[in-house]
């Protein structure tokens, strides 16, 4: 009788070592067949070992082994040396800042956020739309659902229309009503643009809507939301907004500017400066007084001068290095004014102290916007600025650090921006002239305490 080696159900004897190996639904093999397979495998293994021994005896093998050993020793030595250097080195200290999204990057955004919000419903609407503008900057898959929710929240505010008009003086109620009608129409257009997912149209509608909100908030803002420090209470100040128009001309009288009203080229250009007394009342008021006194009429301009003297002026001019600088009166200079900055999230300006931008102290009116207007520094001090010399800052990203801010941010007191005519500013050169400077609106916001009256009655 032929004997069989049985295995448990579901297992099969291995052909190489006769141990059971689980292979489902495979029939059992006999002991004789297993022994035959083992002999065949053993013969193949012996043949492979002979080939390896023959190959190891080839003459080039010892040299290759020596080369491999030398290379391995070199790698180990380098690794040990590098490990020792890393252990002995001091820890590196590096600070990398990403562009700060909390600081405004455009003139419109900076001036809009500087308006004191006295109406909570309008303020909430503004926050919703600014959230849409922020989400729109996401480069790829935009959160259209979140944007639609913000627009719906802004439209829902119109369910209580009288609350949106709270704070508007009675004489300006018709203007405010018209602004609300325009705002509602723009919001409906924005709602459609978001629903159809058209980024370009969304950007345009957001800008239009936020402009109407800013105009409405200006009507609701009665004046300053804080009191000036006692030591500066006798200085003139601007309790709101004012617009100054500059008429400039090239030194050679060339037709370098575009006439937007009549078309064609002109030898004179127009620049509009919007002065913000809500954030910098003393600086803006001082500038308005200088304009009223004719201090900048027929005044030559300088470009990118730093700590230099011109026209016999004995005082060095310290302004930001990419600027259009207007010198003041070198014979009888105006009294200096304190450095004035309103930090974001605070209620009143900070005087005589630069902002600690590295620690996150950011101004409401940043310098890091092309067209920022500020007074120049006096020599050997960061606490006071010139009372008559000022400049327009021509900011670009090449002048910014890793945070996207100017290296001079927080050290100058910005009190306004170029809101029209920046193309004219970029064409100005040393020797070009401010033909005239005049206040075209907002003069009633100027307060002169020493005279006991405002600018309109002085």
Automatic annotation (TrEMBL):
Pfam families with a match to the protein in the record: CYP38_PsbQ-like (PF21329), Pro_isomerase (PF00160)
Keyword Thylakoid: yes
Low complexity: bias regions: 35-47
Keyword terms: Thylakoid
Molecular function as annotated in GO: peptidyl-prolyl cis-trans isomerase activity
SUPFAM superfamilies given in the database record: Cyclophilin-like (SSF50891), Oxygen-evolving enhancer protein 3 (SSF101112)
Annotated ranges, domain PPIase cyclophilin-type: 269-433
Region annotation (Disordered) ranges: 1-62
Gene3D superfamilies: Cyclophilin-like (2.40.100.10), Oxygen-evolving enhancer protein 3 (PsbQ), four-helix up-down bundle (1.20.120.290)
Protein name: PPIase cyclophilin-type domain-containing protein
Source organism of the structure: Tetradesmus obliquus (Green alga)
């Amino acid at each position: 009788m032929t004997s069989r080696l049985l295995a448990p159900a579901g297992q099969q004897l291995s052909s190489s070592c006769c141990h059971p190996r689980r292979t489902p639904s495979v029939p059992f093999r006999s002991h004789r067949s297993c022994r035959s397979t083992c002999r065949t495998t053993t013969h193949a293994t012996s043949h492979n070992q002979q080939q390896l021994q023959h190959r190891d005896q080839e003459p080039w093998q010892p040299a290759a082994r020596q080369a491999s050993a030398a290379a391995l020793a070199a790698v180990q030595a380098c690794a040990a040396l590098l490990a020792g250097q890393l252990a002995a080195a001091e820890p590196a200290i590096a600070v990398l800042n990403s562009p700060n999204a909390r600081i405004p990057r455009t003139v419109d955004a900076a001036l809009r956020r500087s308006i004191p919000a006295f109406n909570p419903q309008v303020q909430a609407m503004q926050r919703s739309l600014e959230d849409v503008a922020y989400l729109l900057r996401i480069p790829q898959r935009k959160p259209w659902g979140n944007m639609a929710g913000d627009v719906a929240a802004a439209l829902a505010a119109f369910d209580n229309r009288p609350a949106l008009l709270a704070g508007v003086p009675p004489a300006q109620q018709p203007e405010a009503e018209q602004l609300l009608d325009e705002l509602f129409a723009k919001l409906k257009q924005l709602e459609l643009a978001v629903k159809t997912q058209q980024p370009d149209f969304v950007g345009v509608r957001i800008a239009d809507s936020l402009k109407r909100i800013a105009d409405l908030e200006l009507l609701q803002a009665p004046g300053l939301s804080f009191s000036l420090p006692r030591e500066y209470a006798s200085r003139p100040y601007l309790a709101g907004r004012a617009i100054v128009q500059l008429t400039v001309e090239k030194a050679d009288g060339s037709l370098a500017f575009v006439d937007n009203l009549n078309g064609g080229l002109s030898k004179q250009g127009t620049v509009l400066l919007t002065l913000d007394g809500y954030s910098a009342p003393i600086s803006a008021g001082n500038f308005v007084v200088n304009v009223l006194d004719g201090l900048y009429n027929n005044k030559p301009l300088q470009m990118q001068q730093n700590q230099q003297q011109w026209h016999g002026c004995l005082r060095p001019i310290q302004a930001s290095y990419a600027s259009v600088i207007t010198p003041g009166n070198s014979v009888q200079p105006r009294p200096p004014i304190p450095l004035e900055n309103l930090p974001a999230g605070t209620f009143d300006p900070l005087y005589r102290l630069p902002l600690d931008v590295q620690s996150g102290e950011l101004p409401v009116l940043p310098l890091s916007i092309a067209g920022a207007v500020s007074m120049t520094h006096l020599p050997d001090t960061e606490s006071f600025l010139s009372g008559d010399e000022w400049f327009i800052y021509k900011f670009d990203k090449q002048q910014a650090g890793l945070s996207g801010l100017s290296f001079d941010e927080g050290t100058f007191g910005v009190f306004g921006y170029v809101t029209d005519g920046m193309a004219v500013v970029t064409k100005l050169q040393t020797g070009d002239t401010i033909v005239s400077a005049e206040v075209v609106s907002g003069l009633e916001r100027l307060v002169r305490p020493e005279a006991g009256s405002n600018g309109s009655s002085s």
